[in-house]
Design a protein that fits this description.
Number of helices: 14
CATH class of the largest domain: Alpha Beta
CATH topology of the largest domain: Rossmann fold
Shape: elongated
Order of helices and strands: EEEHHHEEHHEHEHEEHHEHEHEHEHEH
Number of strands: 14
CATH architecture of the largest domain: 3-Layer(aba) Sandwich
Number of domains: 2
Strand order of the largest sheet: 1-2-7-6-3-5-4
C-alpha cells in the first residue's frame, strides 16, 4: 500500500515503503557507479532479482562508452516484471573529488529518466531514493531534489504519468522524514500550492495586487531560474575537468555561474515578513524607496529621485552603486530587501538581462519586492507616449516579454500611466502625498 499519494498536474506521485523490485511499474530505476558494478544497495537487489544473465547484459554497455556521472543507462529487466531498468550513475571518484554538488546528479537522473520513459512508450516508473545508499548523498537533499524535480516536470506535463518513490527504511525515522521533507520543500522551493487536489501552480487573478498574484509571479520566476540552472548543469556534466587546464577553467566557470543562480534563488526562499504598515501621519518621510527601471529611462529616474528626496525619503537605485560597475543581481536584491517601498517605472523595453539567469533585472526586482511584501507602486508609460527606436527592443522575443510583464502588472495591481516627464512627476507627487 502506498504511504502517501500526491497529485501533480495530471499525474500521481506515490511514496512507498517496501521492495522496489516488487513494483509493477514499466520502468525500475537503479542507482550505481560509473563501472555499473551493482555492488550494493538497490543496484545489487535488482541484479539478484533479475537473474544471472542480467549483469552480463548490463556490462555490454561499458564497451560502447564509459558512463558519466548523471547519465542514465537503459537495459532490459531480466527476470523482473518491468520492461526496462534505468541505471542512474551517482558515483564517480573523479567528479566527487572535484566537489561536484550531489544535488545536480539527483536532478539530472530524475529529469533524464522522465524523458527516456516516454521516448520508450512507458507511462509508469519506480524510483529508489537516489544516492542515499553507497553514494551517501544526505537524505534531506535527496527528498528535496527528487520532489522538486518531479513536481516541476509534472505540473506542466500534458500526459498522465504514474511515479513511485520507494523509501528504504534504513533508519526508523527515514520514511516519515522523507515524507515531511518532500512536501515542505516542494511547496517552498517551487512556489507551488498544495491542497486536497494536490500540488498546483498558483492561479493568476485579475484586479488589485493579491497574494495569489504574487504567488504566480514567484512560481514563474523560480521556474525560469530552474530552467537556466538545468542548462548550466547539463553543460557542467558534459565538461571533463581532467582533460586539461582549459577544461578545468570551463568547469570552474560553470560552477561559479551555478553558485550565482543558487544565491539569487535563496533570496526568494526565506519566510516573507508581514506586510509593511506605514505611518499615515509620517507618509514617506524617513523611508527608503528603491526605484527600478530599464536603462533608457534615466530622465524619469532623475525626476523620481527629486520627488523622493523632496518628500524626505532616501532614494535607492543603481546610480548610487556605479563604483561596483554592473552589480550582480543578488547584491541589488539585498539592497532592495532593505527598502520600505518599491517604485517601478516601465516603458517599452524589457531591459538588460542578468547574464547568469537570463532574466530582466527589472522583472526580478519587481517579483522580489512582491514576494517580500514591500509595497509596490508601478508607473507605466502610456501607449500614447512619444516612443523612439531607442525606447523599444529590436528582438521580437524581448518585445513579447515586456508585453507579458506589463500585462502581469496590470492584472495584479493598480498602476499609474504617464506620457511625458510632467505627467510622471505629477503622478509621483500624487502617490507620495496620498500616504
Amino acid at each position: 500500500m502506498p504511504t502517501k499519494v500526491y497529485h501533480a498536474g495530471k499525474s500521481t506521485i506515490s511514496l512507498e515503503i517496501g521492495d522496489l523490485c516488487q513494483s509493477s511499474a514499466e520502468v525500475l530505476v537503479s542507482s550505481d557507479d560509473v563501472h555499473l558494478s551493482m555492488g550494493g544497495g538497490i543496484s545489487m537487489a535488482i541484479a539478484r532479482a533479475a537473474g544471472p544473465q542480467f549483469p552480463l547484459d548490463v556490462h555490454k554497455h561499458l564497451l560502447k562508452r564509459p558512463p558519466r556521472l548523471g547519465d542514465v543507462i537503459v537495459t532490459t529487466s531480466g527476470n523482473l516484471g518491468s520492461r526496462y531498468i534505468f541505471h542512474g550513475i551517482t558515483f564517480d571518484e573523479t567528479f566527487q573529488n572535484k566537489g561536484l554538488d550531489p544535488r545536480i546528479i539527483i536532478r539530472r537522473i530524475v529529469e533524464t529518466s522522465l524523458h527516456l520513459m516516454e521516448e520508450l512508450g512507458c507511462r509508469s516508473i519506480a524510483f529508489p531514493c537516489i544516492g542515499m545508499g553507497l553514494a551517501e548523498i544526505p537524505r534531506d537533499e535527496v527528498a528535496t531534489e527528487m520532489g522538486t524535480t518531479l513536481v516541476r516536470h509534472l505540473l506542466d506535463h500534458p500526459v498522465s504519468l504514474s511515479i513511485e518513490i520507494y523509501v528504504f527504511d534504513k533508519a526508523r525515522d527515514s520514511p516519515q522524514f522523507f515524507l515531511d521533507r518532500f512536501e515542505d520543500e516542494v511547496k517552498k522551493t517551487l512556489g507551488v500550492d498544495h491542497g486536497a487536489a494536490g500540488f498546483g501552480k498558483p492561479t493568476d487573478l485579475p484586479g488589485r495586487e493579491t497574494h495569489r498574484g504574487q504567488a504566480s509571479e514567484l512560481y514563474n520566476i523560480l521556474k525560469a531560474l530552474d530552467d537556466r540552472r538545468q542548462e548550466l548543469e547539463n553543460e557542467l556534466l558534459a565538461t571533463n575537468p581532467e582533460k586539461g587546464p582549459t577544461s578545468q577553467l570551463a568547469f570552474d566557470a560553470i560552477k561559479d555561474d551555478l553558485a550565482q543562480i543558487g544565491q539569487i534563488r535563496d533570496l526568494f526562499l526565506p519566510e516573507v515578513r508581514p506586510p509593511r504598515k506605514p505611518d499615515p501621519d509620517r507618509g514617506f518621510q524617513g523611508s527608503r524607496v528603491f526605484v527600478s527601471s530599464t536603462g533608457e529611462l534615466t530622465t524619469y529616474r532623475r525626476i523620481a529621485r527629486r520627488e523622493i528626496e523632496r518628500n524626505g525619503a532616501t532614494f535607492l537605485g543603481m546610480e548610487d552603486f556605479a563604483a561596483a560597475s554592473h552589480l550582480p543581481i543578488f547584491h541589488m536584491l539585498k539592497i532592495l530587501r532593505s527598502a520600505d517601498y518599491y517604485f517601478g517605472i516601465l516603458g517599452w523595453r524589457y531591459g538588460s538581462l542578468d547574464p547568469i539567469s537570463k532574466l530582466s533585472y527589472t522583472q526580478i526586482e519587481y517579483t522580489f519586492a512582491g514576494h517580500h511584501r514591500i509595497p509596490r507602486y508601478m508607473f507605466l508609460m502610456s501607449p500614447a507616449a512619444p516612443i523612439t527606436i531607442r525606447m523599444t527592443d529590436e528582438n521580437p522575443e524581448l518585445t513579447r516579454r515586456i508585453r507579458d510583464f506589463r500585462d502581469t502588472v496590470g492584472r495584479h495591481q493598480l498602476f499609474a500611466q504617464f506620457k511625458n516627464g510632467r505627467e510622471f512627476q505629477r503622478q509621483l507627487a500624487l502617490t507620495m502625498s496620498a500616504r
